[in-house]
Amino acid sequence: MHNFTVPVALKAWIDHVVRVRRTFSVTPEGKLGALRDRPVFIAVSSGGRFSGERTHQPDFLTPYLRAILGTIGLHDLTFFSVDGSALSPDALAAARNKADREMQRFFLGFALNSTTVLQQAV
Length: 122
Ligand SMILES: Cc1cc2nc3c(=O)[nH]c(=O)nc-3n(C[C@H](O)[C@H](O)[C@H](O)COP(=O)(O)O)c2cc1C
Description:
By secondary structure, the chain is α+β, with helices and mostly antiparallel strands. The chain has three helices and four strands; from the N terminus they run αβββαβα.
């Protein structure tokens, strides 16, 4: 997170990828994404906290990524965060451990579900 939103490098990538008649089209009902939806995993690192009760800053990053990736057809987003990296070494370690646990739990379930889907397909 940079200044409450995405860092400039990611914004530059978005501006190259999100292009009319390339990755979305304009219809009377609004913008229509050209990409097939698929799981997208987003890891967010931030110096302060940007969610939960002890938050003292706005989060334009999460809603922005939901809106812009949704524009090109990507709706199945999962966010992982290491927030509070600048608060203290202990806070950073705790945030890293929490994110590690969340990712391990999530991807274990994800792999099991994928295996089940594959088994059902054959
Ligand atoms: C230019 C800049 C702006 C930042 N803005 C925020 C911010 O708005 N909120 C926040 O929690 N952390 C902010 N940070 C801290 C980063 O989110 C933090 O260092 C994070 O761990 C990853 O930053 P990195 O891009 O330097 O690796 C900012 C850091 C930089 C360099």
